């Protein structure tokens, strides 16, 4: 934990109403400034106690406080440093260690995730039993979406019409295995907008899940592999359709700062979110009408970490016949936050229920999100509330409009 970054906090309290856990519990130590106070205690010599670790674990890392802070406190860096320190010095109980070990030996590995897909239906039915074994196991079973079929992507998708750019595309781990239709739609949209899309084989996790949970060595290993993958593919711009992945890849330079050669190689590759890239590129293909009312959900690592809010709204609003509605309290996290809804299922469920109620109040037919975790979290919460709303990715909506087909 960097003492200089800790000193930037003046404890003004502007972060409090934006912090999901403070909104839920009203506890000072479960607010950004409260956690920063605990960080200072540790740098001053106080060991990490189980209670202290609990307050750090309860943070979603949503970065809403970074947006709200008038002093420019880099809480995102502080909480990542803190989590790495917690993982180094804090001894968790055996059951928790086992669950965390299962998650981090499973989720970042697409092939292992693929083996789980046939059993998702059974796991969903067993969720109540698994929850009694351990709440995290029940949460995993309840959240996993059913995948009807796998969609194989070619290694290269040619641009439709005049070629305007050549870009790489990240397929990801959770996105690629649980939401293959989003990757397929992303490739089509890019091609229809004049991009030649390079999709290198053998991709895996970008390291987002690991870095957000304090597993720095694993995160660096995944980052180096991702850099090598796109270097070999010969692309210098990589388009990402998952908010958490894009946020982490944009910070590879900092993650690999201790390895100057790798940091330089990371900075030589430009990472852009899909909406960010399309807005910068400008439209080339005709948009066909989509007579729908949608609600747009701000994924935290898109809105707060990357500062991308206007671009997806502008892209969606440009579709004829499409009405975009805002979700109340959109700055408050849905409770997904990478692995948060697995490790902190009770708090995540409360936040998911709040978000589901806000989404339902819009009266929209479709909820549009730009992160697979948010999609699973909100869909699950809507189901618990007895509601039904389709959740789609920005890429799927654009794809339907560009091809002139129903969503």
Automatic annotation (TrEMBL):
Keywords: 4Fe-4S, Electron transport, Iron, Iron-sulfur, Metal-binding, Repeat, Transport. Residues 1-29, 50-81 form the 4Fe-4S ferredoxin-type domain. Its EC number is 1.1.99.14. It catalyses: (R)-lactate + A = pyruvate + AH2; glycolate + A = glyoxylate + AH2. Gene3D superfamilies: Alpha-helical ferredoxin, Divalent-metal-dependent TIM barrel enzymes. The keyword Acyltransferase does not apply. Pfam families: CCG, Fer4_8. It comes from the Bacteria. One of its GO terms (molecular function) is 4 iron, 4 sulfur cluster binding. Binds 2 [4Fe-4S] clusters. The keyword Iron applies. Its cofactor is [4Fe-4S] cluster. InterPro entries: 4Fe4S_Fe-S-bd, 4Fe4S_Fe_S_CS, Cys_rich_dom, Glc_ox_4Fe-4S, Helical_ferredxn. Component of a complex that catalyzes the oxidation of glycolate to glyoxylate. This is Glycolate oxidase iron-sulfur subunit.
